[in-house]
Structure to design on (779 residues):
């Protein structure tokens, strides 16, 4: 199974690998969500959705359906 | 020699751009609209030195030059149109020192437009506590710009910024990176075809859907079109390219010592987005807002009410008797009073909303409410319009523009008018005061405040319920996107909040005020003149009647009867009587009918109308409108006109009916079709009639 932002646990960090460009809005790219940048899951909203992320130093929230589309690689021994 | 230059303020949302604007211009600013669209246009004036004055244009916040809303289109159109009289001589790109990386994306795009650009790095006072240090000479060299380090909150660096603006001619207009390498072939051809045009400008025309005056879109389109996916892929490449450049520059230009940064944000986030405390805090804040609005504004409102009653009497006594005096004392003064009485409540509402937005708390509410709102076809971002809707539906509907999904946005637009806007407040306030006792329960809950709270909840409930229904009924598919920035927490600045409250209140009062005043004057005419013999011979008829019945009546009593008889047979009286059969099942008499007709275009006119009607109908001006309404007796039943059943019926009618021409206009503008506003009107008004009817028939 591929790892996506959706499968991160709280406070886990990862590097963005790839995503389907037709699904991800340009606005998200402009906020720093690009391959090679790091992403950290900061908070999960009360009912499990949306997710509050630190992407490349920007703080933003996206929904699970978008998070599922962004493939990442976990950074080991982070913290 | 005096010189005027144009300065444009550009920046991402949440970087303190408005504070910079306020610092530069003080209260010397004008708020208007861009022609044809309802995007706020803020221009301020600033004296840079003895000779140079600046017109400062505060452009809407945007993350990039790839526009996705009409607010963002404004930015591009302004920056591409050299013929505009506000076209900037110099651009200030405002950034937040903590978000420099992301903020610089927009900066590199602006640089490509070859406008002299100054990089304003705001919130510099936080650098020390966040462990941030900058290599300014290095950054200035790499970014090909001049940098101003400022703190708009503390007013630091503003004078230096002004001095820097004066030297704008010395700033290079050279771009800081070459983005055309993403598809060299394509851009070379483009350059060859349009040698006179700026390459980046051509690229924006190809990718954006905005109007450019001096550039033929079709011409470029035919030879240089690419498929949507291809374009987006190129835009992605462009964005990556720009970020690569920015990362490289910041690697040397910016250092962050993470051990110093204190994490206040994550602690506060943990509480405010907590699955239990998050909601408790949110609802507690709402509760405090609504209780305080009713409690705190009642004193100034009563004061305004009685002041205008006194003014009317004074005008009637001191001016020479005649039609003009009557118009002033019975038409114009009560009309103006009916407008000014809004000020306390509207100001309080805008105050609270502005504090919630400024502090960064609103984004946390969006975050915790998104999942819940989605069940009803709304977005977490719908919370902002629904809360702003308690002030006025017009700015609230405009606030839906940042909702990415069209279906969620449309539903939000359609249901927002159910929230209790401030125009309903005067109607609620006077009716609640008449039919709900001013007692306290459990020692601290004011019954009248509680009734008002219930009406607010009813408005929200109805909005949510209709959203649910619309979501089930409407067949609009499409990918839903949702991206919300979670800004840093900030203590709201008094100056920003105050300017915002004053501007919004002023705009509301002058907008609504003109309508109310005009309607008040028309009403006074319609109430003071009538068709036919009955109106003309009112005195004789009443006198004969009194003598025939052989009743001895006092002079005052006789005058009152004449006045009442005149009103009944005036133009407006005839109109009211005509619709009486339709509204009497709701418990209303013809006087209330008049008020409903006249308030069709704006709810708040209801109170003003009753004020005018009761001023014309009686001879004593010194009693307040509330007292007059309380003592009004129904001639047939002998009961009070404003009894409990009628009161509740009226409250429900005004809670649901779409009595607001401006809302219809804005819905038309934002949805680009008459279908939605008309649907809104029919649905809301018939729903209002039915609930008011049921309520009266059950309660009477």
């Amino acid at each position: 199974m591929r790892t996506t932002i959706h499968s991160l646990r709280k406070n886990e960090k990862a590097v963005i690998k790839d995503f389907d460009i037709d699904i991800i809005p340009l606005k998200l790219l402009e906020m720093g969500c690009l391959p090679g940048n790091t992403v950290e899951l900061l908070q999960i909203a009360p009912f499990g959705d949306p997710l509050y992320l630190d992407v490349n130093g920007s703080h933003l929230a996206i929904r699970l359906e978008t998070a599922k589309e962004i493939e990442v690689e976990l950074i080991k021994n982070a913290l | 020699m005096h010189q005027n230059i144009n300065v444009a303020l550009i920046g991402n949302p949440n970087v303190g751009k408005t504070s910079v604007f306020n610092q530069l211009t003080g209260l010397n600013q004008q708020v208007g609209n861009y022609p044809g669209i309802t995007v706020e246009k803020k221009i301020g004036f600033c004296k840079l030195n003895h000779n140079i004055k600046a017109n400062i244009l505060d452009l809407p916040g945007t993350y990039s030059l790839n526009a996705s809303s009409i607010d963002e289109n404004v930015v591009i159109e302004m920056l591409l149109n050299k013929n505009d009289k506000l076209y900037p001589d110099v651009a200030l790109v405002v950034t937040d020192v903590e978000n420099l990386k992301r903020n610089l994306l927009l900066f590199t795009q602006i640089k490509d437009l070859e406008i002299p650009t100054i990089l304003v790095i705001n919130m510099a006072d936080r650098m020390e506590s966040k462990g941030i240090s900058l290599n300014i000479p290095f950054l200035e060299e790499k970014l090909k710009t001049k940098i101003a380090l400022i703190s708009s909150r503390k007013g630091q660096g503003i004078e230096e910024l002004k001095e820097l603006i004066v030297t704008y001619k010395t700033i290079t207009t050279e771009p800081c990176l070459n983005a055309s390498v993403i598809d060299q072939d394509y851009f070379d051809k483009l350059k060859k075809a349009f040698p006179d045009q700026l390459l980046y400008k051509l690229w924006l025309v190809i990718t954006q859907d905005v109007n450019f005056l001096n550039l033929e879109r079709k011409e470029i389109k035919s030879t240089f079109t690419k498929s949507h996916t291809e374009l987006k892929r190129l835009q992605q490449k462009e964005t990556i390219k720009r970020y690569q450049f920015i990362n490289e520059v910041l690697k040397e230009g910016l250092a962050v010592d993470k051990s110093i940064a204190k994490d206040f944000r994550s602690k506060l986030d943990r509480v405010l987005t907590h699955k239990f405390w998050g909601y408790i805090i949110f609802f507690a804040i709402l509760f405090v807002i609504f209780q305080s609005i009713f409690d705190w504004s009642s004193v100034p409102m009563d004061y305004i009410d009685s002041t205008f009653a006194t003014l009317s009497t004074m005008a009637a006594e001191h001016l020479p008797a005649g039609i003009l005096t009557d118009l002033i004392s019975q038409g114009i003064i009560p009309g103006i009073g009916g407008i000014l009485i809004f000020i306390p409540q509207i100001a309080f509402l805008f105050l609270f909303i502005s504090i919630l937005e400024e502090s960064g708390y609103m984004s946390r509410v969006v975050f915790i409410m998104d999942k819940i709102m989605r069940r009803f076809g709304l977005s977490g971002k719908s919370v902002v319009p629904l809360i702003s809707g308690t002030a006025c539906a017009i700015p609230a509907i405009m606030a839906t523009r940042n909702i990415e999904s069209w279906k969620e946005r449309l539903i939000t637009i359609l249901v927002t008018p159910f929230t209790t806007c401030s125009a309903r407040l005067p109607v609620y306030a006077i009716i609640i005061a008449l039919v709900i006792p001013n007692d306290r329960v459990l020692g601290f809950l004011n019954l009248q405040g509680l009734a008002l709270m219930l009406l607010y909840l009813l408005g929200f409930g109805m909005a949510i319920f209709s959203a649910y229904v619309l979501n089930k009924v409407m067949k609009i598919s499409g990918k839903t996107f949702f991206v919300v920035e979670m800004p840093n927490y900030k203590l709201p600045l008094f100056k920003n909040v105050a300017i915002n409250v004053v501007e919004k209140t002023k705009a509301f009062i002058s907008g609504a005020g003109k309508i109310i005043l005009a309607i008040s004057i028309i009403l006074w005419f319609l109430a003071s003149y009538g068709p036919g013999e009955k109106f003309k011979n009112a005195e004789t008829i009443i006198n004969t009647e009194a003598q025939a019945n052989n009743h001895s009546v006092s002079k005052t009593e006789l005058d009152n009867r004449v006045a009442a008889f005149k009103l009944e047979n005036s133009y407006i009286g005839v109109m009211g009587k005509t619709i009486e059969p339709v509204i009497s099942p709701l418990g209303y008499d013809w006087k209330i009918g008049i008020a409903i007709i006249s308030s069709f275009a704006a709810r708040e006119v209801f109170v003003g109308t009753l004020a005018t009607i009761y001023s014309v109908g009686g001879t004593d001006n010194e009693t307040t409108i509330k007292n007059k309404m309380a003592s009004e007796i129904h001639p047939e039943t002998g009961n009070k006109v404003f009894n409990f059943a009628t009161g509740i019926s009226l409250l429900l009618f005004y809670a649901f009916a779409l009595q607001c021409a401006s809302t219809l206009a804005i819905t038309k503008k934002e949805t680009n079709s008459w279908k939605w506003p008309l649907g809104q009107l029919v649905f809301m008004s018939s729903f209002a009639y039915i609930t008011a009817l049921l309520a009266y028939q059950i309660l009477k």
Remarks:
- Chain B touches chain A at residues 63-64, 66, 68, 99, 101-102, 105, 229, 232-233, 235-236, 239-240, 243, 265-266, 269-270, 273-275, 278-279, 363, 366-368, 370-372, 380, 404, 479-488 (CB under 8 Å).
- Residues 277-318 of chain B form the longest helix (42 residues).
- DSSP finds 31 helices and twelve strands in chain B.
- Residues 511-699 of chain B form one domain.
